[in-house]
Amino acid sequence: MSHDDRLWKIRSALFQVPATRLVEEFRAALTSHFGVLGVEVLLADYRNTTLRPVDSPVPKPATVPVDGSAQGRVFAAQEPLRPSPDRLLLPLTSRGSRLGVVELRLPPGADPQPIDDLIAAIGVCAEALELADRETDHFTRARRHRRMTVAAEIQWDLLPPTSFARDEFALAARLEPAYAVNGDCFDWSADGDLLTVTVTNGMGHGVPAALLTALTLGALRNARRSGADLSEQAGQANDAVHARYGGKEFTETLLLEIDMRSGVLRAVDAGSPLLLHYPADADRRPGVLAERMTLAQQLPLGMFPGTAYAVQEFRLRRGDRLVAISDGLNTATSPAGERFGERMLDRVLRATRRLSAAETVRSLIRELVTYHASDDLSDDAVAICVDWTGA
Predict the structure, then answer these.
(1) Strand, coil or helix: what is 50?
(2) Vertex 312: Cα angle to 311 and 315 (nearest 5)
(3) Distance of alpha carbon 380 from alpha carbon 152, whole angstroms
(4) Is the Cβ–Cβ distance between 92 and 125 less than 8 Å?
(5) What is the DSSP annotation of 147-215?
(6) Residues 141, 328: contact at Cβ < 8 Å?
(7) What is the pLDDT of residues 344-380, one digit of tens each?
(8) Which of 129, 121, 120, 59 is nearest to 100 (CA)?
């Protein structure tokens, strides 16, 4: 059977089976078409710190930590690994969105099928899994290691995928505390030749903060999808929030837009999120790596009706990196009261400059939690990284 015929059969089977039987059907397809003896599908949890088995054929399968495990190396590096003759680990990824890892058990003494064929088959599974996730809570439950707050439930349902890649850019974002987040949020959209990214911090805590952020994000999306430019998006969202809250509550928001044809970056700073720029040649400039972009401070969204927002423009070069962080990350403190933004931020981002965007934000949040000495951060934290690879 040809490669294309085999992929077509696998795709046909996975996209026709009920969502809750997807992994079972995928396991059967790989056994039938590739001769593997076993298939384990591991999904990354919401914090990207553990890989959790879903529909495992093994009784009481173990959860695997991302840091310090072979499976975690595959998830982080997005490269295949054969840790032993009878085991093959492959990333489970769809369009740059890192879902988890697939572990294959091979027949004794047998070489695996061409690795590209297996990767293609697992890519089909990843696409089917993303679609199936809209139809059932089955995979959502599998990814969680504890119950979420209602506010966090609202926030996560608002979010786009936490990572994505195409020829012009790679993007990744993280949100903490993942199971108890309040009003921080991020959004992005790659529409034709424009990449739009927003980081939003709704004031307050709990469900009220989540609802305020939901309204802001909905208004921004409505304006963007109606063809509004960046300034109009900010203005329309501002008026929508003010109409509901009368200026008593507001959201601090950073809006970014990259023209993928020209590399022009447009920005509206309506609040506190911090934007860092890492030039492509920073590694060749001793002592200089991070450049805090000078953005005109403008009113947060929702304070006064009819506020006009000015757009600033910058030019990106191939290899540049942008990192946006919310105030909760920049001002987080150690038990001794020292701010993360002052003591650790540049150090961590310098150490991760050569890592992927996804690993950069994962490392940043991991170091933040370690510095804070608790998973329960005192304030929400968002980190989003965009690597510009050029038109």
Answers:
(1) strand
(2) 135
(3) 11
(4) yes
(5) PPPHHHHHHHHH---SEEEETTEEEEEEEESTTT--SEEEEEEEETTEEEEEEEEESSSHHHHHHHHHH
(6) no
(7) 788 888 888 888 999 999 988 888 887 775 666 666 7
(8) 129
